[in-house]
Amino acid sequence: MVQNYLRYLFGKARNLVRYREVSREVYNLSGKRILEYRNAYKGKSCFIIGNGPSLTAEDLELLKDEICFASNKIYKIYDKTSWRAKFYCVQDFEVATEMGQQMKIAMNQADATFFRMDKHELLESLVLEYKNAMMVSLRWYLNKKKKTKFSGDARSYLYDGTTVTYMAMQLAVYMGFEKIYFIGVDHNYPFYRNESGDCVEVDKNMAAHFYENSVKGEAANISVHRSNNKFMQDVSYSAAKEFSERNGNVTFYNATRGGKLDIFERVDLEDVLKHDRGK
Q1: Is the dihedral of CA 157, 159, 164, 165 positive or negative?
Q2: pLDDT in tens, 204-239
Q3: CA 20 to 30 Å from 54, out of 5, 21, 33, 241?
Q4: Is there a contact between 223 and 190 (Cβ–Cβ < 8 Å)?
Q5: H-helix or E-strand spanning residue 7
Q6: CB distance 30 to 130 below 8 Å
Q7: Burial class (CB in 10 A: 0-12, 13-18, 19+), 10
């Protein structure tokens, strides 16, 4: 009990330090802006778009009339489709630095952009530049039973699942969406980090994202440098499923073509669209 309380105090103090690192203006603007989205889409459905190799422009064309979350380098497919993400998310600071000003390609066409709250000069400047951009706090949590948590309150904080998909899932719940579908969330990597933090090679010729060319070795070079923490992602997806089962009003469905995200019920994308549109 005492250890848990001390761990709680340490986590709270760490978050406060991070808030102080972010400018007061960015912090206050973000807090005000995120409030506008609380239950703004209550009862509606949405799609969370992953950047896995299964993602195609053809599938995105089917989603032109749907509310979609997307992330990171999704703009790399924009020249192949008229579809655009309504909500744009960036969690990983290394990826953000790598993308730089290219993030504006997605931001300029999104209704809102969400960044991880922490000290990052570029992201803070974008919050000040864009009236629909904001930062949200992410908290790390993993107890002795190897479990994490799921938050539906983005005004306070979300939990870090080591994948921007988990951030988008929690934002979607905060906004009131009740049916949340995934496409392009393959959850299958050429390299990943296990529970011990060791890098495990699965298939160095496999692409991790739709924009990587495995033939040229791009996937291997990128994945070795930034291997996914698959263990923590599995833990996080389990927490999301438990949350949905307890909540009763939120359900996650996987409409990804292939991949290895099997914890959520599999559905066919075309069937979902026909049902939702009453066709």
Answers
A1: negative
A2: 777 888 997 654 555 555 544 455 788 899 999 999
A3: 241
A4: yes
A5: helix 2-21
A6: no
A7: exposed
Q: Is 156 helix (H, G, I), strand (E, B) or coil?
A: coil
The CA distance from 35 to 175, in Å, is: 10
- Region 15-41: mean pLDDT is 85
Q: Residues 51-71: pLDDT tens digits?
A: 999 999 999 999 999 999 999
**Residue with the two structure tokens 């949905």:** 244
pTM of the predicted model, to two decimals? 0.87
Q: Cα(90)–Cα(105) distance, rounded to whole angstroms? A: 13
Selection from 231, 229, 247, 224 nearest residue 170 by Cα: 247
Greatest extent of the chain over all pairs of C-alpha atoms, in Å? 57
Residues 6+ apart with CB under 8 A from 95: 72, 73, 226
Pairing of strands 228-229, 251-254: unpaired
Q: What is the pLDDT of residues 160-176, one digit of tens each?
A: 999 999 999 999 999 99
Neighbours of 3 (CB within 10 A): 8
What are the two backbone dihedrals, phi and then psi, of residue 205, each rounded to the nearest 5 degrees? -95, 0
CA separation for the pair 215, 43 (Å, rounded): 44
Beta bridge pairs of residue 47: 68, 181
Strand partners, 182: 48, 254
Give the separation between CA 59 and CA 10, rounded to whole angstroms. Answer: 44
Distance in angstroms (rounded) separating the CA atoms of residues 134 and 157: 13
3-state helix, strand, coil in the chain (%, to 5): 40, 15, 40
Separation of alpha carbons 74 and 274, rounded Å:
25
- Token match 């790390």: residue? 140
End-to-end CA distance of the chain: 55
